[in-house]
Each structure stands twice: as C-alpha cells, then as structure tokens.
Amino acid sequence: MHEPTYEITTLTPQQPTTHPAMLPTEIPPGVQMVTLPGGIRTLAYTPTQAPPAPPVPVSQPIPTWAKTTALLTPTIGGGVAAAGIGLSYAAPGLIAMSEALWAAVALIAAAAIGVPALLRFGRSAAGPGRDTTHITQNITASGMFGKANGTINHR
User: Fold this and answer.
1) pTM across the whole model
2) Is 94 left (phi over 0), alpha (psi -120 to 50) or beta?
3) In whole angstroms, what is the distance from residue 96 CA to residue 123 CA?
C-alpha cells in the first residue's frame, strides 16, 4: 500500500495569519479585545471592577467674611428698626417744624414786601413842605484800566 505524502509547514513571523474579525456586538460579556506586550491583539476575559467609592465629604471651615456678615446682620437690622421707631416718635415734631418753617418763609416774604411799602407811605405822609434831596453822580474813565473821575451834584 502506498501512503499519502503530507507536507508539514511551520508558521514563520513573515507570514501573518488572517483570522476573520469579530464585530464588537459579537464579543460576549466579560470579554474584551486586549493588546499583549508583543503587540498581538486577542480576546481575553477581564475581571469586572467595582465602581470607585464616592469621595467622603470633608468639612470646610466657615470663611471669616461669612462669620462677620452673620454677626453684623442683627446689628444692622436692629439699627434700622431703631431708626424707624425714632422717626415714628419724631414725626409729629417734624410736621410741626415744617409748618413753623413755612410760617417763617411767609414772614420773610411779607417783610420783604411790607417794609419798603411802609417806608414809602411814611415819606409821602410827611407832607408837601418837606424837600427831597436828589443826588446825581457822573463818572468818567478813559481806557480799560484808566483812572475814574466823577462829580456829585446835589439838587
């Protein structure tokens, strides 16, 4: 009997092997495509990692400006309240003072009108026998900064 001849060949690095590529949807859960240190890419089981624990919140010190603001707030509120109470007590006096000021304005206006009228009435009541004095003054000057000369005439 005659035996068939077989030829055995070995895979050399120059001859790359081509395997049909798997689609990402065909890869089963828990298996990932990994690259080995020699550069060969292959499928491997990878352990699932637990999600990292959330960070523990650390208490922060209260800022100085917040402490100052918290201490000043009742003081400012108390000052505003005291000012409101003071204005409520002062309101009748302020109203009376404003009325007194209006009365003073009316008195000043009456004096500004009445005093010249009384003086004029007093002069005319003195009678026709009283002479009035008229003074005429003539002033002349030459140039912008010249010396001024003047004459006064009494009639």
Assistant:
1) 0.29
2) alpha
3) 40
Bridge partners of 114?
A: none
Q: Which residue has the tokens 């009445």?
A: 114
Listed in order, strand segments (DSSP E) in 13-134 are: 31-35, 41-45
The CB density around residue 80, as the number of other CB atoms within 10 Å, is: 10
Amino acid identity at 96: A
Contact 46, 30 (CB under 8 A): yes
What are the backbone dihedrals phi and psi of residue 113, each rounded to the nearest 5 degrees, phi first? -90, -40
What's the rounded Cα separation, in Å, for the pair 98 and 85?
20
What is the structure's pLDDT at 4?
62
Tokens (6 digits) for 57:
């919140």
Which amino acid type is present at position 68? T
User: Structure tokens of 91?
Assistant: 């309101």
